[in-house]
Write a structure and sequence with these properties.
Length: 96
């Protein structure tokens, strides 16, 4: 989980407007999710740590995830991880 912010940044470099996650009629792009992660990191990163940033950002941009049982958030995270792993092979993903 601590690698998710780095992986998300790589996905933004590869495909910023790519869909990170969809729930219902709401689609969140990698760029939108990354902006939320960066805002959380700036505000509370020291307190939260990297492993908490992406789950909290997901619950912020898709509030229905936090309103349901934790299993839905876990499934959303698993789906996001699969998508982010797919972007790891993109040459821009490892660029600084």
């Amino acid at each position: 989980m601590s690698e998710l912010p780095r992986m998300l940044a790589g996905a933004v470099r590869c495909e910023p407007e790519g869909v990170a996650l969809t729930r219902g009629s709401v689609a969140v792009t990698y760029r939108e999710l990354h902006r939320e992660v960066e805002a959380l990191n700036a505000a509370m990163g020291v307190l939260l740590g990297p492993a908490s940033l992406v789950p909290i950002a997901l619950a912020t941009v898709l509030p229905e995830l936090s309103e349901t049982h934790t299993g839905e958030l876990r499934r959303a995270l698993d789906e996001l991880v699969c998508r982010l792993v797919d972007h790891e092979s993109c040459p821009q993903a490892s660029a600084s």
